[in-house]
From TrEMBL:
Top-level lineage group: Bacteria
Residue ranges annotated for the Aldehyde dehydrogenase domain, each copy included: 2-447
Record-stated family: Belongs to the aldehyde dehydrogenase family.
Protein name, as recorded: NAD-dependent succinate-semialdehyde dehydrogenase
Amino acid sequence: MMHSVNPATGETFASHEPLDEQGIESALALAEEQATKWRLTSMDERTQLLSAIADRFDAHRDGLAEMATKEMGKHIREARAEVEKCGTALRYFAEHGPAMLEPEKIPGGKGELRWLPIGPVLAVMPWNFPYWQVIRFLTPTVLAGNVGLLKHASNVQGVGKLIADMVIEAGGPEGLFQNLAIPSGPVAGIIKDDRIRAATLTGSEPAGRAVAEVAGGALKKVVLELGGSDPFIVMPSADMDDAVETAVKARLQNSGQSCICGKRMIAHADIYDEFAERFTEALCSKRAGDPFDEESDIGPLSSEEQRQTVLDQLDKAKKAGGQLTGAEKPDGEGAYLHPGLLTGLDPAGEMRDEEVFGPVAMLFEAKDVDDAIRIANITPYGLGSAVFTSDADEQEAFITGLDAGMTAINQMTASTPEAPFGGVKNSGHGRELARFGLHEFMNLKSVFRAD
């Protein structure tokens, strides 16, 4: 049995019966059947469905947001914004997606290149952005002519069901998109099944390695987004007010439970003391509280287990010489943790391998541009990065020097339907969003024509 537990209160408010073997078999058979039909639909039919799903996200925004807040603790402000973002992405692809799939002439006039669907795709999705992560998969799946099966995180099964219901309510046929209420155990067998053509996972590095190993053995393509320990670099020419404000926002997004949160703050020696003082004060003045209270800064972590994971990481960091400011654990019920800051750590120490998924930042000092890049790249992850500098030469040095899938200049890293999203190194491979994400699970067919 899978349970929906409110992390703000510890209350179990819903339980979900997982599919048995027969239920999984029925879902796979339905996906295979629908795949033969949906691939033949017109582009107009696909885009109309995306627009209709977007309408339902808009119409039910508040109720959808409340479910996310109850299931994983996301502050209600951020939950509403996430739901709205889903509608925006669905409409973006409905409007611009067809042009991304237009045939392309082969040089010399000998034929063309076609983007064609491949069939059923399995998505293993996390709890931290329970709507947005799924829409990043569902949208290109529908537009490409594929069908999708979702294995959502066990603690957000309510969200998974709501999404699947909205697809049906919007006019999507049975089997186009199915929410598989299953734990992680059956995932390997589903990936190996010949009816599944590819898989995508957003989650932890160990989970990604496990899925990649199974998919590789079955010769299935995968897209993996496995998190990161993103650098947030501040140079002397930066607008300090903007840098401090954005650094706090970046670290506390989703209570610090975002793969592209700025996690390792790196300040140039010339402005290190000023940045450290202002950032510490601004960060530690924020407080965790009731996620339904508009006045609270952040909500709880997603579970008591997740809070304990972060507390264990902080203990490890202190044993390695780190000094911790803030990060108090409030008394009472709920998986709350106030924001905090770690300083004094060796950038090359054990914490470089850790992704702290909570409202605690690490701060390091860099001597110059090259040293900042060295510290930034020392982690095994390479998802996002952010740099605050008004110097054009420095900007170019960071763009080319940072080993990451994304670099934001004078702003925080964010995902948007217009730009490809993904990383390098242990942050995974492949891309979501934009035309690159749309093409990941399609057959690029070369068509040759005789004169």
